[in-house]
Design a protein that fits this description.
This protein folds into 2 domains: about 140 residues, Rossmann fold; about 240 residues, Dihydrodipicolinate Reductase, domain 2. The chain has 12 helices and 15 strands. β5, α5 and β6 form a beta-alpha-beta unit. α5 packs antiparallel against α12 and α7 runs parallel beside α9. The longest helix is centred in the middle third of the chain and has 25 residues. The radius of gyration is 20 Å and the shape is globular. About 50% of the residues are buried. The mean pLDDT is about 95. It binds nicotinamide-adenine-dinucleotide (NAD).
Length: about 400
Amino acid sequence: MTKKTVRAGIIGSGFAAQFHLDALQRVSVALISVVGVYSRNPQNSENFASKNDLTPFYSLEELINSCDVLHVCTSPVSHEEIAIQVLKKDKDVIIEKPLTGYFGSGENFNGDTFPRKTGLDYAVASVNRMLEAENSSKGMIMYAENWIYAPAIQKEREVIEKTNAQILWIQAQQGHSGSHSLDYGKWKFSGGGSLMGKGCHPLSAAIYLKGVEGKVLDGKPIRPKKVSCQTHSITRLPDFKNQGHLKDSYTDVEDYASLHLVFEDGSIADIVASELVHGGVKNYLEVHANNHRTICNLTPNNAMQTYNPVDTNFKDIYVSEKLGTKEGWSNISPDESWFNGYQHELDAFYKCHISRISAESNSLLAADVIVTIYSAYLSASFKGKEVSIDL
Ligand SMILES: NC(=O)c1ccc[n+]([C@@H]2O[C@H](COP(=O)([O-])OP(=O)(O)OC[C@H]3O[C@@H](n4cnc5c(N)ncnc54)[C@H](O)[C@@H]3O)[C@@H](O)[C@H]2O)c1
């Protein structure tokens, strides 16, 4: 059968834009024609376009008009506006995590001090505007949460479905030594700190897997109900001594969060997110069920391990994301994007685009994640008091 050609457009020209473009080369369900790139800063668009042999666009509207599917790879503060613009044109939109949030307003906005109830109310309103835009569009939102499509998480989905497993407790974590993005760490661009930027990954996967369990049980997901959370800003402590291995550029966001989630059925998840982890990205999720236990090691894992006595010997070799040094033993990744699920995610999204079915990682999952995160921030402002999640 001849494959359909689908026209894709990239919005943003940073880290996520690059891995989207790379993963697009590995989509097999359709022939992808990457029409071009649009970014806030025209010079960045041009640099990205010339590096990747693409056409730079100077108008977002023109890019949208020329494409069937748009990839929103921009800072979280811009997701709502861009996504609504795409949906109004009846096009499908792939939105990088997190879906949206609260980014404050005014010159004197400070992420440390604003009332968390205000943040929750604004985030919920933003989510609702996006859901309404999707409901009135022929296009759909696909929530680019790669953890959902990571092979280890999808294998666990199969285990849950085929054994009728009841998940009792999930432990999961994302941590590393700090983001490269200049917008990260400033609430007005990122909508929060570690919980928002990192915690959304394991949280999404935990909510997804409980959703899978619920659908097997009686056709509907088991959703989050109550949350308690504590956040801390360790690299902003007056006595923190930075020896140059961890980023400490966070102006008004946390760099550590611990979230305890209770689902509708009383089962629980414990999620940790932080910028305090040496040795590369730690992405793991552990399921304790009534009939099995699974540990999903997205990164690092020991699919391949290498000992390298001299750092510079590996100067042209990619080892793994955010690794501090290439010297000594490393869990060198033979295909990091595969373990992260980037190409599986885009293959699934283009399949949904062609067949017009909702993605496993859709706007409803993304909405549950955002409302849980901002309810968690409210809890953290009460030093961890339990807060109901009203969806
Ligand atoms: N799934 C993952 O593993 C993963 C990893 C990193 C980042 N992300 C997500 O990807 C998104 C982008 O993060 P990043 O690390 O690429 O950041 P980045 O700072 O490297 O790039 C952001 C890009 O967006 C552009 N931009 C910002 N506002 C814009 C606007 N209004 N219109 C057009 N372009 C605009 C910037 O110019 C820049 O090119 C964020 O939502 C982030 O959470 C996901």
